[in-house]
Amino acid sequence: MLLTKTNVAQFTCGFSSELVDGSTSYLFSISISKLNGDNWQSVWSANRHYKVDPNAILNFTASGELVLQDADGSIVWTTNTAGKSVVGINLTDTGNLVLFDVKNSIVWQSFDHPTDCLLPGQNLFQDQKLISSVSLHNSSEGMYSLQVTDKGFVAYVESNPPQAYYSRLVGKTYTGTNKGRRYMSFLNGILAFFISSSKPGYPLVCGRSSICSTNQQCSCPGILEYFRPVNDRQPNLGCDEITPLTCNSTQDQDFIVLENIKYFTSTADMERVDMETCKQACLNNCSCSNTTAFIKVQHATSHRVSHNVARVVGSIFGSFLLLLFVAIGFITYVYHKRKRDVEMEEEYLNQVPGMPTRFSYEELKTATKNFSKKLGEGGFGSVFEGSLKDTSKIAVKRLEGLSHIKKSVLAEVQSIGSIHYVNLVRLRGFCTSKSQHFLVYDFMSNGSLDRWIYHGKREHILEWKCRKKIILDIAKGVAYLHEECRQKIVHLDIKPQNILLDNDFNAKLSDFGLSKLIDKTQTEVMTTLKGTFGYIAPECWSSIITEEVDVYSFGIVLLEILCGRKHFDRSQQEEDWLLLFVFQKCWEQGTLLDMVDKHSEDMQVHKNEVVETMKVASWCLQRNFKRRPSMSSVVKMLEGVMNVESNLDYNFTDPSIHEQVTHGLFIAPPLDGRLCLS
Fold this sequence. Notes:
Layout: E1 2-5, E2 9-20, E3 23-34, E4 41-45, E5 57-60, E6 66-69, E7 75-78, E8 86-91, E9 97-101, E10 106-109, E11 117-118, E12 123-125, E13 130-135, E14 138-148, E15 152-157, E16 163-169, E17 175-178, E18 181-185, E19 191-192, E20 211-212, E21 218-219, E22 227-229, E23 239-241, H1 275-283, H2 308-351, E24 357-358, H3 361-367, E25 374-378, E26 381-387, E27 393-399, H4 405-416, E28 427-433, E29 436-442, H5 450-453, H6 464-484, E30 488-490, E31 499-501, E32 507-509, E33 516-518, E34 525-526, E35 530-532, E36 544-545, H7 548-563, H8 579-589, H9 601-605, H10 607-620, H11 631-638, H12 655-662, E37 674-676
Parallel strand pairs: 24-28
Antiparallel strand pairs: 1-2, 2-3, 3-4, 5-6, 6-7, 8-9, 9-10, 11-19, 12-18, 13-14, 14-15, 15-16, 17-18, 20-21, 22-23, 25-26, 26-27, 27-29, 28-29, 30-33, 31-32, 34-36, 35-37
Helix pairs in contact: 6-7, 6-11, 7-10
Domain Protein kinase: 369-642
Binding site for ATP: 397
GO cellular component, one term: membrane
């Protein structure tokens, strides 16, 4: 931590903590306080969008670069000064963090990257913004910004496009020109750009899509029909749309009338425009959401018809027209509903929180050379190899079908969209183009684990040391999902096909399309049956889901790696089709050594160590899920710092399946064994 003082104030530079949504996270920031005071206020921060976890590192590298890394090693922020002869770092008495070279010249300074404050001596140039924080306790970028113009400064609401709500002309005392750029400077005080919640009068004082009345009460327009409060107890937090606006669906949009409403931005350009033109202009502008509409109706002229036949003919004709209009209306409704459902599907994907990079279809088509090199395919689609412009290799999964796409993409993004962990495959981005949907991952050069462990399919036989490393990698990946994420993530489909290997045979979990987020206070949840035959824990058939479901699946994968065969193998004798049945029989007969992969001499050399690892699998495969270990305990056992439970139940198989196999009545599962019943 750096600290500097003046006669009236003191500055500090280091990690500061913030409590957001009940979790403590950290920012690398500069803060100010009165001399000898303890009330610190942040005046600058590095990458305020991204809060880091405990154990994050700020590194001043030998190449002269200041680098902020999160606890998982990912780079959050950097000064990009490598190779620029930086020799030192200094926090000046004006609160400016400076990197300087051998000539004591400034190479980089925080004054060039303002956040929400302007310190004495700091300039705000025309191409820069002061952007407010979300709140006093959350320094992420808020909705309000301040910019310098040729005549002064203007405050904006960050909508699309930004809308000005305040401007002020300032004299030469506060503005100047440097290399053709207008700037603003405050020499005798601090310009802090913030919003006071106690003094209404600025845009969105009541939050988004909300109305502030003259008595300073907040409410939602068209409540319950079009909008609902974000929080019933805190009306100033704004309103959510019950049905979100879709930019290209103007035929399904209407206007609600808001009387006596004053809007903060100018509408002078619409003064001589008739109401219909105004409405059409708003419908064609995606960001337009404020107007007043009047519906004009005209009464039909009534004529006396003296002849009774004319009345009858008119009645029949009117009934026919009515039926015709009803039929046309119904057909039109069905057509637009189907069209709207497709559009909402597209829009839904755009609004998923935490979404990574969005690629265009053309980008992926070019990257994969028109999807020419298929790496494989599974239950949810095909996977293709590709290469981006920066030469980094990617794997592109094309999702096929319609009904499950939204759930699959949402589960994938919610699970790993914002997670970067060494034993999880990184989700690089996504693409939605009409009816086509893609997920983009880092490329794993050695493919999936099943290519390397099954006899008759593997490319070459893995040695025991490599298998042991892969097993530990898988265990660490699952333990991270269960215990180290902010929300517990249950994968629900752990199998060799979903475990990928990089160039150095480091194992990473992939395919989170079935995963489920569970609150850490929950011990179990009820859900529909999901997973792949053979890897599904027994309790799943009663729809009980806990993290122990993944422990069971891990136990099956562990056995397959140690034995070099599939959990269900028709090439074996009929009584040995099921690996679990063989495992149970070998426990009863004391012949576990016979299960060690016979196609590997190295495995046979280490077969006693392999059998010890089989005991870990035995604990994971307990039929009573409450008796299985946590994945963190599995990691400890594999690392040799914890012993396996001695009092285990070795009846691994369902008695009914056991009976069917014994009498030759067992019906083999389908080749594509993935289950997802909803």
